[in-house]
Design brief:
single chain; alpha/beta; Rossmann fold; Helicase, Ruva Protein, domain 3; five-stranded parallel sheet; three-stranded mixed sheet; binds adenosine-5'-diphosphate; binds magnesium ion
Length: 400
């Protein structure tokens, strides 16, 4: 039956009622009509009306009010956020490929690149790109953006309520599935099974699937082989952030916040932020309120840095002087990275300052060292424990 036929039918029998029905969200599918009313009162009215006036319509009619829709495993909105579009995505060498592939997907869903697996570190625009695809397609296609966690929660709920069939079916009429944060599949067996079923069905019908993760499919440990091999069967693209792109993004965000675009401002943001657009945005927001922070008293800072170096060196049983020199010795390098990390997280020094203090020329050395420590913290529990312990002692020594 063609779209809008339900409303045409109502119009033909009752001109007054059609005005009320037009206020509702109506979705016509092959064998059912779903009517979503803004509240319970309207739901009651619609149900009573349909029961008396529309017998033998030929399709099943389901009426739900908005409150129910939010908790139903079957019916949901597309979850798209309007603010993320291709137009406001800044493109540079490190994200150009991801951008172009996503743009192509939005022009020809299910055709050239399917599935697409996009991965990269946090804050690099993966979610932004997923929404951009959805926003381009939402008028013409049945699109759903969902994070793996929400998928998993809805599945658990559906299982509890004995509505798993409904849950599965709700994905099968999609043209485009945009699944975010699939790294959370790790260790979730039942979620993997359900996703696999849906995935296979959508793929068989050449429906577009775009997956986003913080790591490459082969680094998804504790995820079933068959899912990994499906993920690997598509186009896998890494998204990154290089200095040139970062500079462009900073400029775009400065304009957005009505701030000047002069070199000192751009450099100030560049040197005080890492390679994470979320961090850059946060920094610019604070900068808008506080402006340039005056450089702290140099002697004072040096004393604090000495305290950091001494304490870290002591815990590694090393001579503190070693940490300020060039070295190839693994143990010293590790200690040095940790000391640099604390200069950022506790002393709040800029990357450029930290690099200088440790005898390096440009700010990327500190960035690299700090990133390494952050990464190890997430991967190694023992290391995480050691860092927390050191941090506590340091804060105490520094009187913070
Ligand atoms: P991820 O999903 O990779 O962790 P997000 O897509 O959530 O990152 O991006 C974090 C923030 O940075 C968002 O506000 C997003 O709009 C912004 N952002 C990321 N990359 C870009 C870019 N290339 N251009 C403009 N904004 C970006
Ligand atoms: Mg994200």
């Amino acid at each position: 039956m063609e779209r809008g036929s339900f409303l045409s039918l109502i119009e033909s029998i009752d001109r007054f009622a059609v005005g009320i029905f037009r206020q509702f969200l109506i979705k016509e599918e092959d064998n059912r009509v779903l009517i979503i009313t803004p509240n319970e009162e309207y739901k009651k009215w619609a149900m009573a009306y349909l029961a008396t006036k529309l017998k033998g319509f030929g399709k099943s009619i389901v009426v739900e009010c908005e409150k129910e829709v939010k908790t139903s495993p079957t019916v949901r909105k597309n979850n798209l956020l309007d603010k993320y579009t291709f137009d406001n995505f800044v493109v540079g060498p490190s994200n150009e490929l991801a951008y172009k592939v996503c743009l192509e997907v939005s022009k020809n869903p299910g055709k050239l690149f399917n599935p697409v697996f996009l991965y990269g570190k946090s804050g690099l625009g993966k979610t932004h790109l997923l929404h951009s695809i959805g926003n381009r397609l939402k008028q013409t296609h049945n699109v759903l953006y969902i994070s793996l966690m929400d998928f998993s929660d809805a599945m658990v709920k559906a299982l509890k309520e004995n509505r798993i069939e409904e849950f599965r079916e709700s994905f099968l009429n999609l043209d485009v599935l945009l699944l975010d944060d699939v790294q959370f599949l790790v260790g979730k067996e039942r979620t993997q099974i359900e996703l696999f079923r849906i995935y296979e069905k959508l793929q068989a019908e050449e429906k577009q699937i775009v997956l986003v993760s913080d790591r490459h499919p082969k680094d998804l440990k504790d995820v079933s082989e068959r899912l990994i091999s499906r993920f690997e069967s598509g186009l896998i693209i890494e998204i990154g952030l290089d200095e040139e792109t970062k500079r462009r993004i900073i400029k775009q965000k400065l304009i957005l916040y009505g701030l000047p675009l002069d070199e000192p401002t751009v450099n100030y943001v560049l040197e005080n932020t890492g390679y994470n657009v979320r961090e850059i945005e946060g920094f610019i927001q604070t900068f808008k309120v506080t402006g340039f922070k005056p450089k702290p008293n140099k002697e004072n800072v040096e004393k604090k840095v000495e305290t950091v170096i001494n304490l870290v060196a002591k815990s590694f049983k090393l001579n503190p002087e070693l940490l300020k020199k060039e070295t190839k010795e693994r143990k010293v390098i590790n200690a040095k990275h940790i000391a640099m990390y604390f200069c950022k997280t506790i002393l709040n020094l800029s990357y450029a300052e930290i690099s200088n203090l440790f005898g390096k020329k440009d700010h990327t050395s500190a960035l690299y060292a700090i990133k390494k420590v952050e990464q190890k913290r997430t991967e190694d529990r023992k290391f995480q424990y050691m860092i927390s312990f050191l941090e506590k002692s340091l804060r105490k020594s520094l009187g913070l």
